[in-house]
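One chain given next:
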Amino acid sequence: MLCAMNDILNALKQSWQSLSANKMRTFLTTLGIMIGIATVILVLSAGAGFRTLINDQIASYGTNTLYLETKIPSKNKSVINTSQLESGTVITTLKVRDLDTVKKLPNVVNAYGLAIGQTIASYRSNQKNAVYVGADSARFEIDQSTLKSGRFYTAAEDSGGAQVVILGNKIATDLFGQDEPLGKLLRIGTLNFQVIGVYNSSSGLGGEYDNYLFIPLSTAQKKLLGINYLQQAVIQLGDINLSDLTAADIGAAVRRNHGITDPDKDDFMVTTQSQILDIFNTIFNSITILLIAIAAISLIVGGVGIMNIMYVVVTERTSEIGLKKALGAKKYNILQEFLIESVLVTILGGCIGIIFGALLSWILTQVAISSGLAWKFSLPLYAIGIGFGVSAAIGIGFGVFPALNAAKLDPIEALNKE
């Protein structure tokens, strides 16, 4: 056992001396491995940060919510319902009475409807093309976002069609500059609205609170859009563990209201947070696999490069191999020596790749933060483990053939070869 350990230590020492004596060749040999491992680390690290960002974004709507929105009958269910946009069809069947029905269901705590539009918002000479979100006052009991200043509008203002508005942080700055927005009149379309609140800066993906205007639902429906229906709704649950069962109850209730007997002809869809995350994870995992596959090409190229260099090393040290075998070295000693050198060079490249990939991920995090995203730097332990594991596997996989070639050399022929 002690003898075997000494053999390994001697092989490590000799391998390190060999690599140190040919620094440029060692660097070029490990370059492909470094790039591949750095890409893998960047993808996994950035992916972990992006997942956290998405989870926080969904949680900002309330951790125990699900979503009800319109769709064209017979279209497949999708979190992002593009079918209406593609066909130009508008579904007008989702009404406030549907929400009133939903609120009476077990496990439903609260709900609010949404109507969204786009128009020109102006204050004095400042104008901005803005999206406004009409939502009833129940939104403020569910939503987790907070105000920088001012107040939320009341249920009375909502039902009475009051012309009041809460500004996203960025649009408040764009329109009012250094002026205090509270109490000022903001023109939205052809109507004047009194500013009663300003949201804190949003760190979510897309910064929806930063760029939107929020007004009472009835005001948006009657005075700006001229409609009597909802585009979507957010529903708060008492027990998130019963979300699937509650979603089925909501579907049945809305189906009765709409006179639908065949679920395949639904003009609405109910989506839970877990379904949103499942769809996101499916998409994101596919992208991750694609990026890692691209990185794998670099790793394979790097592995082939290492194999070629190891064949060169074997050729250069043929006489040395012959002398060692003549002095009693066994095949496994020679195999071990060259295999250790191959693994050492790949792990060296892997370590540099891990550091470089982590640095790139950190830079990406800083760019995201400077763009207003709540992106958190994350370097999962499994990413480091994968980096080391892949490096070692490549070293063994691509180093074994040159090592075997060295181990099989005949000592007499090796000694006679220059």
